[in-house]
Amino acid sequence: MVESLSRQAPSREQLITFYRQMQLIRRFEEAAALAYQRRKIGGFLHLYIGEEAVAVGAIAALAPQDTIVASYREHGHALARGMDPKAAMAELYGRVTGCSRGKGGSMHLFDASIGFLGGYAIVAGQMPIAVGLGLAAQMQEQDRVNMCFFGDGAVNEGEFHEALNLAGLWKTPVVFVCENNLYGMGTMLARVSAVPEIYRRAEAYNIPAERVDGMDVLAVYDAARKAVEHARSGHGPYFIEAMTYRFRGHSMADAELYRSKEEVAQWRQRDPIPRLRAYMIEHGLATEEDLNAMDAVVERIIDEAVRFAEESPEPPPEELWTDVYAGVSKETHHRLGVVQR
Amino acid sequence: MPEMTYRDAIAQVLREAMRADERVFLMGEDIGAYGGSYVVTRGFLDEFGEKRVRDTPIAESGIVGTAIGAAMGGMKPVVELMTINFSLLAMDQIVNHAAKLLYMSGGQIPVPCIIRMVTGGGSQLAAQHSQNLEAWYARVPGLMVAVPSTPYDAMGLMRTALREMNPVIYIEHSLLYRRRGEVPEEYFTVPLGSAAVSRPGRDVTIVGYLRTAMLAEEAAERLAREGIEAEVIDLRSLRPLDLDTIVASVQRTNRLVVVEDAWRTGGFSSEICQLVSEHAWDYLDAPPTRVNGADVPAPYARNLEALAYPTVEDIIEAVRATLPGAASDYHHP
User: Fold this and answer.
1) What is the count of structural domains for chain A?
2) ipTM value of the model?
3) Within a 10 A sphere around the Cβ of A45, how many other Cβ atoms?
4) Measured between CB atoms, which of B62, B102, B242 is closest to A159?
5) Which domains are assigned to chain B?
6) Which residues of chain A lie closer than 8 angstroms to B279, CB-CB?
């Protein structure tokens, strides 16, 4: 195991940022759910409500040069990394002003300018890619760390094991963050895993690992700082298992037959946002009024994002044919696409 | 002009690229200490060291995914997957990831990497080691598929692939490694999407690639002795496809035979026949014809395997069937 850093309480500014980001994600997701019900958003919509502390706490430990890859439940990670909520919402709406020009949608948010290298919708597919991003940094001798988010559903995929083996073998600077929300879609982890303590699997690949309370943003931040420091200083990958829970269904289509209302209610008691709110008030770091004012600002940002998405144009028809290939002439592009249109 | 083998041409261009560009590195199964299962990278480990010649675990998806990530991070990986049969374990990374990232990111994330793999049968390696699956990759928008048949093309196409910003599937045929050919000393490239007319002729167009490009040339030589002048086109890449060269040829010869080692059903030969029907229908004097490998898993027994892949005789028979006075259309068993 690695040397543990002294647990250093985050500054007041940091806590306020955590609160604002978690609230931003919560409101963004609620607005997205509403828009989905109004059929403004198509496809699949996987909400991050309940899990906000994981993305916010973990990403706060990163530096500007670092990169992130995530699963298809990635709105929260994109926002925590600083993606403009307007660009994120416009992407969900399928508008050309979206972060992926309306060509990715909810599951494929990208913003290379902030090192947010995407949402990936094949379970565990992003994991070897994360190793490669770490490998590039290592070969270039740059102190860049890649953070890789995935759910508990990913851990029985071959790519999970292939990626962990390669990362452990080559000591690439990758922080693996497993968001264990107990269910892979509607199947409880314990029903499909011989070893349901996911962090224990990292040991098989010689990767230090720990399990944290994913409903506590401070605990996640603490673990992530240690993990990022470990990876950045050349010690190789680190594995965090964050125990968390999604308050909503797997996607908007989920009837939630596989879990009880009581279980959901119990987890809601541990909602990370009221928890941080109480902590800040209790420690005199903010007043009710401060936090209410912040909530109002977040509300306004989300309203603006929705309005922006509503008013943005759809991608022009020629966008169908662009970005299939990079850096090729129009003529070659034509040949590369369908030969006869 | 100096001669070299197909194998040496690939090795030389990789060596040249690694000397010139620090971003280029190799990763794959048994490419380092072992020297490559088809001996392409022998000596590379000594020259470039284990950071740039990375022996990997046998984990195709992990290897290709790592290469994609490395390419996203500013490197230029060249992956060797041993054979195309094993690439199926990396299909997720190749098709779902490498081919999609640029598009679904709205143009932000190019994936400049090369994935080398060996295709084809003919060495009694049986059903799991003898497939020709390159057309599967050619179906996927976002990928490029290079299929060199000569040392010259192997070198020229690899140089182009190394400069590409897109994922290139670079296919080598196991029976071509010892093929010799002239390769100029001065720098040259072969663009992707430019077929070669490897033999001009006026009577019939024979299209092939990889091993079947070579077979087509042999068939054309024998047909010439009977006074039949076949034009031979070597595709050199399946995607982009140089349809213009094929159509222009058929417009002169009015007859088309496409030869492919791969299975007949849903093959690339069907694609070419259909495209020619669409683009040169009025010029055709006979139905476009295919010569394919048998629609069976590759057998082990020497005699059965010989029946499973197209031969020069098959091509000649197919050509004859397209000519005036042919008794019947050509039918492959």
Assistant:
1) 1
2) 0.95
3) 24
4) B62
5) 3-182 (3.40.50.970), 196-322 (3.40.50.920)
6) 340
